């Protein structure tokens, strides 16, 4: 009997085994999906519910594929949960409400760093079927947007559909963000004076009005704590649809105040109003509180009440909102002539300068071509002449009608909305002033509150073509032909008057002919519709969405990003780069734009990691999308910094990743314990593949080797390669970057060859020193002078050093002028030729320099440093404490940054008249030059860093005897952290 039971169990097991394999073979799902289901454990049924749900209807075939995609790639995805994570999220919300100057202290506060439990929840074993279905449904709704439809299904799955962006708990951020932001992208809000409502004007109770000197009308409405009073105002909406609101406020409390906002007694939300500073002064750097309400036409009542603390309301902005389908290109980006019934738009002066006016001319030869660019809804009008570019700008003074050209700051008064006219053409209205572009009787272009002329503007496309003359005087002439929108005809512009002449500003007719003659012109008419746009609609959408994502403010600690609840990020939108890029990606994906995050583990020429947002056009091309910069703008720190290796975050499991290839066989660096990224170095860099042999050939157990770059303290890994034969093979390495090849033993790295770089021809160049040869070198810096702040360096050019015997410097004598060869961020010396004695000395900054200077040391004829009372312009730019005292504090990193751009100065008042023989000074700098009095130690690389000795700097350079061809590192023992490896070529430091 026992044997019977045993045999029966064997039979049952066999049957179940066969059945399960037959079932696996018969399931309609992919092998990757089935493997994921096998790993799901008890959660398998939940996942199968999703597949069965979408398998019932053929119309859901794409959604079924999307479900398989999510489930099959869920294998290694997880969330970090627990009381410690909860504490971090409370911390994040709390910090949002703090004053800016208090945030650093709060971030470091022990009371906000409570340790707790942390646990890992794998999505595969915990996610619910309803959550996945909700994600698929909401993602497919965005896939139906006009700008999203053209994405391939593969692009949609990889860069729109995924719900997982970090290790935070799974929440439906997509629906939340879509509901919050989608109404915004279709609205054209026009502000202007009439959109501003002073809060204090909505009460007659004097006790509710407070005086604040720099408030918009020097008064504010006092909203008392805990609902003791309410702010109420009536709104008259002349249309049905979404309306935008913005509240400017003051909060002098240490932390945030919470207020409830209602419309028609319906709660819109409980809004957090962060602290702004004091009760005495408005802080205009704080963003207003913004929200959207869907209104019917007619009268409505808005109420605000405090739920906890006092709050001052300065004013509300309720712009006139016009709904435009987005991203419908009303006028395509391109170059146009702007025309109305009176003629063409042009400059009122011959040259393109700031504050030049505009006028209408009826002489087409004087028309000014205008480059039209759009963010999806609003437009900029750019004019170019002699390599100078300006934009059309609306003057923002309350009663001003001025329209002018000015430098492009991308501000709202430089953006214009185009409102289609029923009879053709457009009304052009300024975003900031809500005034309409029109003209006066003398043809001066102005902005006006009322469109009293009702004269539509038209855009004539500028085209350049080459034409042939078939007459006796056969020659080729370059000219413009223009499409007349109204008459739907082409106009050919040719001028045959006067002597031969080529214009520098080649706007319309490029050449006059020497003699008049008659010609027959042949040309092909091109069908160039005004609405045809060469810019991908998805990029148009991303550009429009950037107005939302640009509200993000950078602050915080990099290591808190992974744990922050996505809903908190959407609501409070602050943090460091990891949170910023997550915020951008969530907003973009929720609105149907394919996007992800590219990153470097560590820059190749400086410390720290970095990541940035990218979006994709319909062809799959990558476009940079950096916060607070125009979409596609190439940001210098990404394009000019050395990267070494660049990676892209994915939702698909990268089967060629080190994590998958290694499969647990050997210890690998923690940064590579992740299959959800791929190598995109070749999209950013001129790269090569290389093989690096192992020095002193020995038995290698490691299958994988690594490439490291240097940060401020250590060599750090950024790439990996496989061991093939006697060498490690590395792919896609940026050229002209210093790499150190190394093995990893599970804890530490060991170099297996010399540091190397790849030259422009793709050849490996090793850095090898000759121990038998020694030479003397001079070193002036420990870190390269990066040109990211080059414009600050130049502020010192033209500054003057003056001596005087009157405190007002009315008898001043210039004893030295800073020239353009003195911008290098090191100490410079000026020798005075004046023998006169002075009671007062000063440095007066050049025009628009804010008198920027970091340190000044003055000497008498005996070489003694002169001391005196510090005098000069009081205050600093934006009251940041960068005052005149900083110039004489013996700290090269502090500077005087004057409150005014021009006319400011800093100096010394001596006890008695003195001779000035020498001035040592330094402008804006990074503090990495060799400083007299500091202690230094020089190292060279020989399988590890080896010391060449310590020295105290007695001048601006250090002199050492060193091995020829070595790699060096200079360490300041007195202060500072920044240092980089360098070699010596022709006596100069070459930085790596």
Describe this structure in words.
There is one protein chain. This protein is of the alpha+beta class and 992 residues long. It has 17 helices and 61 strands. The chain folds into eight domains: 83-117; 192-318, Sandwich (Jelly Rolls); 334-457, Trefoil (Acidic Fibroblast Growth Factor, subunit A), CATH 2.80.10; 462-522, no CATH class; 537-644, C8orf32 fold; 658-766, no CATH class; 774-785 and 930-991; 787-922, no CATH class. The strands form 16 sheets. Strands 15, 16, 17, 18, 19, 20, 21, 22, 23, 26, 27, 28 and 31 form a 13-stranded antiparallel β-sheet that branches. Strands 4, 5, 6, 8, 11 and 13 form a six-stranded antiparallel β-sheet that branches. The protein has a six-stranded antiparallel β-sheet with strand order 39-42-41-40-43-44, with no helix packed on it. The N and C termini lie far apart (80 Å). Helix 2 packs across helix 4, helix 3 (44-55) runs antiparallel to helix 4 and helix 11 packs across helix 13 (577-590). The radius of gyration is 34 Å and the shape is globular. The model is unreliable at 1-25 and 464-532 (pLDDT under 50). This is CBM6 domain-containing protein. It comes from Flavobacterium glycines. InterPro entries: Galactose-bd-like_sf, Ricin_B-like_lectins. Keywords: Signal. Residues 1-25 form the signal peptide.
């Amino acid at each position: 009997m026992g044997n019977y039971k045993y045999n029966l169990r064997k039979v049952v097991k066999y049957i179940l085994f066969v059945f399960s394999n037959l079932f696996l073979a018969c399931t309609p799902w992919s092998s990757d999906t089935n493997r994921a289901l096998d790993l799901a454990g008890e959660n398998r049924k939940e996942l199968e519910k999703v597949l069965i749900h979408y398998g019932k209807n053929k119309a859901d075939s794409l959604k079924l594929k999307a479900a398989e995609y999510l489930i099959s790639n869920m294998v290694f995805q997880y969330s970090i949960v627990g009381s410690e994570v909860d504490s971090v999220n409370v911390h994040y919300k709390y910090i949002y409400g703090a004053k800016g100057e208090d945030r650093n202290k709060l971030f470091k506060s022990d009371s906000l760093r409570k340790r707790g439990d942390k646990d890992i929840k794998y999505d595969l074993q915990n996610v619910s079927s309803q959550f996945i279905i909700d994600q698929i449904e909401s993602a497919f709704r965005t896939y139906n947007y006009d700008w999203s439809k053209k994405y391939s299904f593969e692009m949609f799955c990889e860069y729109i559909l995924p719900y997982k962006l970090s290790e935070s708990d799974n929440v439906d951020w997509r629906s939340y963000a879509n509901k919050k932001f989608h109404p915004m992208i279709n609205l054209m809000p026009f502000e202007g004076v009439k959109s501003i409502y002073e809060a204090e004007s909505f009460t007659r109770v004097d006790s509710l009005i407070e005086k604040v000197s720099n408030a918009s009308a020097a008064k504010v409405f006092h909203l008392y704590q805990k609902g003791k009073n309410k702010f109420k105002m009536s709104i008259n909406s002349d249309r049905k649809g979404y309306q935008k609101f913005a509240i400017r406020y003051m909060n002098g409390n240490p932390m945030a105040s919470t207020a409830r906002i209602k419309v028609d007694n319906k709660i819109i939300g409980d809004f957090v109003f962060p602290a702004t500073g004091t009760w005495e002064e408005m802080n205009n750097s704080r963003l207003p509180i913004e929200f959207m309400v869907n209104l019917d036409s007619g009268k409505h009542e808005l109420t605000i009440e405090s739920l906890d603390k006092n709050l001052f309301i300065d004013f509300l902005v309720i712009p006139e909102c016009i709904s435009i389908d987005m991203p419908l290109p009303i006028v395509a980006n391109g170059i146009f002539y702007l025309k109305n019934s009176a003629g063409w738009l042009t400059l009122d002066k011959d040259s393109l300068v700031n504050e030049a006016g505009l006028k209408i001319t009826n002489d087409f030869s004087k028309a000014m071509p205008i480059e039209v660019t759009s963010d999806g809804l609003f437009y900029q009008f750019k004019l170019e002449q002699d390599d100078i570019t300006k934009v059309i700008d609306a003057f923002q003074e309350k009663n001003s009608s001025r329209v002018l050209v000015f430098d492009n700051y991308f501000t709202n008064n430089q953006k214009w909305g185009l409102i289609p006219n029923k009879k053709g053409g457009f009304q052009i209205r300024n975003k900031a002033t809500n005034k309409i572009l029109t003209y006066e009787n003398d043809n001066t272009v102005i902005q006006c509150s009322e469109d009293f002329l009702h004269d539509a503007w038209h855009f004539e496309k500028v085209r350049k073509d080459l034409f042939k003359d078939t007459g006796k005087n056969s020659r080729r002439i370059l000219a413009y032909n223009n499409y007349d929108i109204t008459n739907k005809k082409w106009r050919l512009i040719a001028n045959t008057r006067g002597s031969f002449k080529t214009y520098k500003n080649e706007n319309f007719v490029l050449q006059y002919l020497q003699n008049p003659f008659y010609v027959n012109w042949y040309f092909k008419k091109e069908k160039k519709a005004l609405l045809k746009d060469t810019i991908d609609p998805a990029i148009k959408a991303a550009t429009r969405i950037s107005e939302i994502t640009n509200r993000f403010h950078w602050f915080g600690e990099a290591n808190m990003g992974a744990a922050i609840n996505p809903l908190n990020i959407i609501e409070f939108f602050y943090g460091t780069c990891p949170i910023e890029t997550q915020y951008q990606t969530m907003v973009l994906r929720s609105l149907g734009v394919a996007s992800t995050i590219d990153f470097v583990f560590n820059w190749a020429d400086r410390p720290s990691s970095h990541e940035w947002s990218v979006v994709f056009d319909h062809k799959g091309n990558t476009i940079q999308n950096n916060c607070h910069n125009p979409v596609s703008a190439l940001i210098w720190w990404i394009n000019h910094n050395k990267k070494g290796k660049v990676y892209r975050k994915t939702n698909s499991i990268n089967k060629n990743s080190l994590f998958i290839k290694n499969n647990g066989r050997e210890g690998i660096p923690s940064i590579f314990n992740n299959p959800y990224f791929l190598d995109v170095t070749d999209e950013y860099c001129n790269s090569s593949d290389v093989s690096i042999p192992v020095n002193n050939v020995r038995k290698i157990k490691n299958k994988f080797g690594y490439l490291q770059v240097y940060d401020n303290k250590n060599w750090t890994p950024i790439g990996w390669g496989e061991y093939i034969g006697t060498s490690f093979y590395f792919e896609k390495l940026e050229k002209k970057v210093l790499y150190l090849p190394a093995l990893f033993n599970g804890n530490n790295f060991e170099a297996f060859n010399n540091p190397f770089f790849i030259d422009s021809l793709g050849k490996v160049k090793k850095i090898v020193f000759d121990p038998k040869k020694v030479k003397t070198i001079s070193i002036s810096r420990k870190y390269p002078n990066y040109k990211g702040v080059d414009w600050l360096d130049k502020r010192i050019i033209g500054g003057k050093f003056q001596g005087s015997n009157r405190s007002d410097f009315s008898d001043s004598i210039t004893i030295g002028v800073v020239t353009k060869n003195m911008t290098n961020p090191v100490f410079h010396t000026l020798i005075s030729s004046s023998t006169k004695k002075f009671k007062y000395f000063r440095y007066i900054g050049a025009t628009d320099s804010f008198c920027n200077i970091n340190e000044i040391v003055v000497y008498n004829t005996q070489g003694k440093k002169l001391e005196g009372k510090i005098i000069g312009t009081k205050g600093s730019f934006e009251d940041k404490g960068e005052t005149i005292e900083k110039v004489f504090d013996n700290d090269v990193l502090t500077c005087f940054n004057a409150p005014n751009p021009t006319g400011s100065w800093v100096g010394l008042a001596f006890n008695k008249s003195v001779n000035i023989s020498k001035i040592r000074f330094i402008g804006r700098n990074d503090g990495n030059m060799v400083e007299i009095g500091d202690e230094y130690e020089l190292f060279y690389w020989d399988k590890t860093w080896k010391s060449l000795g310590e020295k105290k700097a007695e001048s601006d350079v250090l002199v050492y005897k060193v091995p020829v061809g070595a790699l060096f590192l200079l360490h300041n023992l007195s202060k500072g952290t920044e240092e980089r490896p360098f070699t010596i070529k022709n006596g100069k430091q070459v930085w790596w």
